[in-house]
Amino acid sequence: MYENKPYFDPKEGTDGCSTAEIAAEFAACMKRGDSPDSPAAQSAAAQWCACGCGTEHPAFDAEAYGTGTTNYITEAIEFYKKGR
């Protein structure tokens, strides 16, 4: 997919497709200063969309991730969907 993956490893024994794990991947991008359209953030957005997750998905609790991360995820997903 993309070479510049975030420095994030899913927990052992998981498929990396849980909302919390992908949100943590987005948070790693954000903390590194990656823009929502960076290859790493777009890789996370592709994984997010492939897993059927969306910001409207019931498993996504915006309050748990905070406004900054939620906005970052929303922007990355919007950019990803525009590029498809």
Key words describing this protein structure:
84 residues; 0% strand; single chain; 57% helix; mainly alpha
How does the overall form come out from the CA principal axes?
globular
Q: Find the count of extended strands (DSSP E, 2+ residues).
A: 0
Beginning-to-end CA distance, first to last residue: 14 Å
Q: What is the average per-residue confidence, as pLDDT, rounded to a whole number?
A: 77
Radius of gyration, rounded?
11 Å
Class from helix and strand fractions: mainly alpha
**What is the count of DSSP helices, taking H or I runs of 4+ residues?**
3
The percentage of residues in β strands lies in under 5%
Largest sheet: none
Q: Percentage of helical residues?
A: 55-70%
What string, H for helix and E for strand, traces the elements in order?
HHH
Low-confidence stretches: none
Could you please describe the fold and organization of this structure?
The chain has 84 residues and is mainly alpha-helical. Helices cover 57% and strands 0% of the residues. The protein has helices at 19-32, 39-50, 62-83. α1 packs across α3 (62-83).
Write a short abstract of this structure:
This protein has 84 residues and is an all-alpha fold. It has 3 helices and no strands.
Describe the secondary structure blueprint for this structure.
Elements: H1 19-32, H2 39-50, H3 62-83
